[in-house]
Design brief:
The complex is a heterodimer of chains A (242) and B (298).
Chain A lengths: L18 E7 L2 H7 L5 E7 L2 H4 L5 H13 L3 E8 L5 H10 L1 H6 L2 E4 L3 H10 L3 E4 L1 E11 L2 E4 L17 H4 L26 H11 L3 H4 L23 H4 L3
Parallel strand pairs in A: 2-3, 2-4, 4-5
Antiparallel strand pairs in A: 1-6, 6-7
Chain B lengths: L2 H8 L3 E6 L8 H10 L5 E4 L11 H10 L4 E6 L5 H13 L4 E5 L20 H12 L16 E6 L7 H13 L3 E6 L3 H15 L5 E7 L4 H10 L7 H8 L6 H18 L5 E5 L7 H7 L4
Parallel strand pairs in B: 1-2, 1-8, 2-3, 3-4, 4-5, 5-6, 6-7, 7-8
Helix pairs in contact in B: 5-6, 9-10, 10-11
Classes of the chains: A alpha/beta (242), B alpha/beta (298).
The complex binds iron/sulfur cluster (SF4) (2 copies).
The site of one iron/sulfur cluster has 10 residues of chain A, from helix 7.
Chain lengths: 242, 298
C-alpha cells in the first residue's frame, strides 16, 4: 500500500545540504489518549523530513503499528507518503487506498503539522497529530539538527555575515550582543554559541566592522501576512521574471 | 523634577540607588526604602520585571517616587511588550511625571518565573533608545507626529566584563550613536579593568555629553560572590576580593561587602574614573545610607 515510493534518505545521501522541518514523535501515551475513542487507525508518514528525523518513516510506522496493535487497535494501516505536506498527493493516496481509508476511524500522522493538515484536507474523519513540529533545521550530521532560519519573510542576513540574528540570537537582537554573552556562548543556553560573537568574528574576518556599526531598525513583521500564502503562478517577481 | 538629569548635567559626581518592586500588594518595605533613599541619592532606578520575574510595575513605582519628591529612573525592557505597548507606556510614564528612562533588552523569560511565556523582543535596547529619541523629537516610531513631544533623559547599560569585550564595545558605541545620554554598567568589581573601560569610554564619547556610571552591587557573602562568578555572565569578582570577603567571620561579611562598595565609590570619585555610581543593594536598600556614610558622602 503506497503512493510514490518513499525516497531513500539517510546516511550518505547528501544530508549536509538539506534543510528540514524537524519533528519529534509525541509520547505514545499521549497518542493513545488521543485515539481512545477509535478502533481502527490509518497511520500516515512522510518520505521527506519525517523520514530523515526518524519521526515517521517506514521503520517508525512499522513500530507504531505494532505498538498500537498491542494496545488493542485493529486494522492498523500504514502509508508513507512521498511528501505528507502535498495535499493533492495525499488525496490521491487515500483514493488509491480507498478501502483502508474508508475503514479507518482515525488517521494518525507521524509527520509535521503541515503534513497533518494535508491529511485533514483528504478526509473528514478524526485526525491525530503524532508528532510535535519543532523548527526548520539544518542537518549538522545524521540526527543532529540546528535551527538557523525562522522564515521571517524578509531575509536580512547579508548585513550580518550571512549569520541570522533573528533566529540564532535567543533574543533576536539586530544590533549587537546583549550583556550576557559568556565566553562566546549564549546566556540563555551555554550549549549554544552566541550568534553575535559569530557575527562579529565573521564580519571582522571580512573586514566589515564598519558595517557592524550600522544601526538596524526592527524587523518588518508584516513582510509576510500570516498565515502565509503564495500563488507562484501570479507572483512573477518570485520567479525572477521581468 | 528632573533631579537626576540636572545632577548629571551639572558635572557633579552622581549617585543613584535602586528599588526592586515586590511581588504582591505588600508594599510597606518598598515604601520604607523609597523614603529612606529618595533624598540621599540623585535618582532611584526601578526595575522592570527583573530577571524575568513578574512583579509590581516599574511605571507605578517610578510615579510613586516622583510623587514623593524623589527622581525615578524608569527601567524598561523589550521582553514583555511590542512597539505599540512600549510607546504607549512611554507616553503614560511621561504623563505621570517620569523623566528618565533606562532602555534594556531584558533578561530572557527562560531565567524567570513564567518560563512558558512568549518573549517579545519586537524592539531591542538600541531600537528602544532610538524610539525614545524620536518621541523626544515629537514623532512616534511609525513617523506620526505626536501632539506634544516627550522630554526623557535616555539611559542604557553596558557590560565592561563581557567576554569577548570587542563586540560589546561596538554595541556601546551604537547605543551612543542611537541617542543614549547616560550609562549604568553591569556590576563591576575589578576596578583596574573598569578604569580601562572608562578610559576607552572617554575616548569614544569625546565631545558628546554622555555620562558613565559604575554599577556597584554590594557583596553580602563569599557564597554570593562565587555564585555570581559562576552563574551571572558578564560579572566577575576578582580573587583578592573573594579573599577579602573570606577573611572575616560570616556575620561580618555584609559589613565587609559594604566597606568594599564604599571603597569603590571613593575610588571612582577620587580618581575621576567616571561620572558617578549606581549602587545596588538588591533588597537590602536600608544599608545604602551606611555605605554612603562609609564613603564620606553623608
Ligand atoms: S533573516 Fe533569518 S529568519 Fe529571516 S529569512 Fe533570513 S535567515 Fe531566515
Ligand atoms: S548571549 Fe548572544 S545569542 Fe544569547 S541572547 Fe545574548 S546576544 Fe543573543
Amino acid at each position: 500500500m503506497d503512493g510514490w515510493p518513499a525516497r531513500q534518505v539517510g546516511a550518505g545521501s547528501g544530508t549536509e545540504d538539506v534543510e528540514l522541518i524537524i519533528s519529534k514523535q509525541k509520547p505514545f501515551e499521549e497518542i493513545l489518549e488521543s485515539l481512545s475513542a477509535n478502533e481502527s487507525v490509518y497511520i500516515v508518514g512522510c518520505g521527506e523530513c519525517a523520514t530523515m528525523t526518524q519521526t515517521g518513516g517506514e521503520t517508525e510506522l512499522a513500530a507504531m503499528k505494532t505498538r498500537l496493535e498491542e494496545a488493542g487497535k485493529k486494522d492498523v494501516a500504514t502509508d508513507v507518503a512521498h511528501s505528507a505536506c502535498h495535499e493533492l498527493d495525499m488525496k490521491r493516496i487515500f483514493r488509491q487506498n480507498k478501502e483502508a481509508a474508508e475503514g479507518a476511524d482515525a488517521f494518525l500522522v507521524l509527520a509535521c503539522g503541515a503534513g497533518t493538515q494535508a491529511v485533514r484536507e483528504g478526509t473528514t474523519k478524526h485526525v491525530v497529530p503524532g508528532a510535535n513540529s519543532l523548527f526548520v533545521g539544518n542537518v549538522k550530521r545524521q540526527m543532529v539538527f540546528e535551527e538557523k532560519c525562522s522564515l521571517c519573510g524578509e531575509c536580512v542576513i547579508e548585513a550580518y555575515g550571512a549569520i541570522c540574528p533573528v533566529t540564532r540570537c535567543a533574543k533576536g537582537i539586530l544590533n549587537g550582543p546583549c550583556g550576557g554573552t559568556n565566553n562566546g556562548k549564549c546566556e540563555v543556553d551555554s550549549e549554544k554559541d552566541c550568534a553575535w560573537v559569530l557575527i562579529y568574528k565573521q564580519m571582522k574576518a571580512e573586514e566589515r566592522l564598519d558595517e557592524f556599526m550600522v544601526i538596524h531598525g526592527p524587523k518588518r513583521w508584516n513582510a509576510v501576512e500570516r498565515p502565509g500564502r503564495l500563488d507562484g503562478r501570479e507572483a512573477d517577481e518570485v520567479k525572477g521574471a521581468a | 523634577m528632573a533631579k537626576y538629569r540636572e545632577a548629571c548635567e551639572s558635572g557633579k559626581f552622581v549617585i543613584s540607588g535602586e528599588i526592586g518592586p515586590p511581588k504582591g500588594t505588600e508594599v510597606n518595605g518598598m515604601l520604607h526604602h523609597i523614603e529612606l533613599l529618595k533624598d540621599l541619592v540623585d535618582g532611584l532606578n526601578v526595575t522592570d520585571n527583573q530577571s524575568a520575574v513578574m512583579r509590581l510595575g516599574s511605571m507605578a513605582v517610578s510615579h510613586e517616587i516622583v510623587t514623593r519628591g524623589g527622581d525615578a529612573i524608569f527601567q524598561m525592557t523589550c521582553r514583555d511588550r511590542n512597539r505599540l505597548a512600549l510607546e504607549n507606556d512611554l507616553l503614560s510614564a511621561h504623563f505621570l511625571g517620569i523623566r528618565n528612562v533606562l532602555c534594556l533588552t531584558g533578561d530572557h523569560v527562560s531565567v524567570g518565573d513564567h518560563k512558558d511565556a512568549k518573549e517579545v523582543y519586537d524592539f531591542e535596547s538600541v531600537q528602544l533608545i532610538q524610539c525614545v529619541k524620536r518621541m523626544n523629537e515629537g514623532y512616534d516610531w511609525a513617523g506620526n507626529e505626536l501632539g506634544g513631544a516627550t522630554d526623557f533623559y535616555i539611559g542604557a547599560v553596558v557590560t565592561p566584563e563581557s567576554d569577548p569585550i570587542e563586540p560589546q564595545k561596538l554595541k556601546y558605541e551604537k547605543k551612543i550613536a542611537a541617542g543614549a545620554q547616560f550609562f549604568q554598567t553591569q556590576a563591576v568589581y575589578d576596578m583596574e579593568n573598569f578604569q580601562r573601560f572608562a578610559e576607552y569610554s572617554r575616548g569614544v564619547t569625546e565631545g558628546k555629553d554622555v555620562k558613565l556610571m559604575a554599577g556597584l552591587v554590594v557583596l553580602t557573602s563569599v557564597g554570593m560572590a562565587k555564585y555570581m562568578n559562576k552563574f551571572v555572565p558578564g560579572v566577575f569578582v576578582p580573587d583578592d576580593l573573594l579573599e577579602e570577603m573570606a577573611s572575616v567571620p560570616k556575620e561580618d561579611a555584609l559589613k565587609k561587602g559594604m566597606e568594599i562598595c564604599a571603597r569603590h565609590i571613593r575610588f571612582c570619585m577620587d580618581n575621576k574614573v567616571c561620572d558617578g555610581v549606581h549602587v545596588m543593594a538588591i533588597g537590602k536598600e536600608e544599608i545604602v545610607p551606611d555605605i554612603l556614610k562609609m564613603a564620606d558622602l553623608l
